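pls design
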């Protein structure tokens, strides 16, 4: 679990430096939770790193200023924080053709470096950068739910949307929610707002999320309900750009 957290944190932190929002593309994901609190999670498919800087200019003017800066200055401050730049002429760096080529090369190198780093971490059976800010991921991990589980995880990078979260509730319950597998999250908490980059990421959602368990299902929000399978019960959510409600379920463990 520690290795997973280090890898996911590294991914989120690196993508934060590139001003990116991490979202699913085409994928298959599974979560198996046993009544004894053991669990297994998999994610196989695309992870998209969307350029968040395209949405900075459309931030609501009523947002709290950074260091009491005016709105225009605030956007500049955010852009500086999210896109570390070398010393030099800012206009040449962002507008000049040579600057654009240099930034593209640097961006490509950073994306490749992220994929290489993830490939060495436990849980990542493979991690390949496919170009155009798209990663192909094959991830699997197992453990014990003695504490909360998040994928991906970063405590500081609030722009990184958790795909799946499992929280312990009281002594005998766990609540699973998958906000990343829907388009219903609170966009007011997303610096991209309603930008075209955010809309493109939303349109890319295409996958299935399967929960299997032999624990008691207290509640769940898939209208077809749970099916009986040899492993206990199975709930399957189909995720598309029209999915507005995040998959969710509450389970009760055995005493």
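designed seq:
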């Amino acid at each position: 679990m520690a290795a997973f957290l280090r890898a996911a944190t590294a991914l989120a932190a690196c993508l934060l430096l590139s001003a990116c929002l991490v979202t699913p593309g085409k994928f298959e994901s599974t979560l198996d939770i046993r009544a004894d609190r053991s669990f297994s999670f998999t994610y196989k498919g695309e992870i998209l790193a969307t350029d968040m800087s395209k949405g900075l200019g459309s931030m609501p003017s009523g947002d709290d200023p950074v260091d009491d800066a005016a709105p225009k200055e605030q956007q500049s401050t955010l852009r500086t924080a999210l896109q570390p730049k070398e010393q030099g002429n800012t206009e040449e760096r962002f507008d000049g053709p040579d600057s654009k080529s240099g930034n593209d090369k640097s961006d490509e190198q950073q994306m490749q470096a992220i994929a290489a780093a993830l490939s060495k971490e436990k849980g990542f059976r493979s991690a390949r950068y496919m170009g155009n800010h798209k990663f192909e991921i094959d991830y699997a991990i197992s453990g014990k739910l003695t504490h909360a589980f998040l994928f991906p995880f970063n405590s500081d990078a609030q722009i990184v949307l958790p795909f799946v979260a499992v929280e312990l509730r009281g002594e005998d319950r766990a609540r699973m929610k998958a906000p990343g597998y829907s388009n219903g999250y609170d966009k007011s908490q997303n610096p991209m707002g309603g930008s075209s980059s955010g809309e493109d990421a939303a349109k890319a959602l295409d996958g299935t999320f399967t929960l299997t368990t032999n624990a008691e299902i207290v509640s769940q929000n898939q209208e077809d309900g749970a099916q009986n399978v040899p492993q206990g019960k199975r709930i399957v959510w189909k995720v598309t750009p029209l999915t507005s409600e995040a998959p969710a379920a509450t389970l009760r463990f055995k005493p």
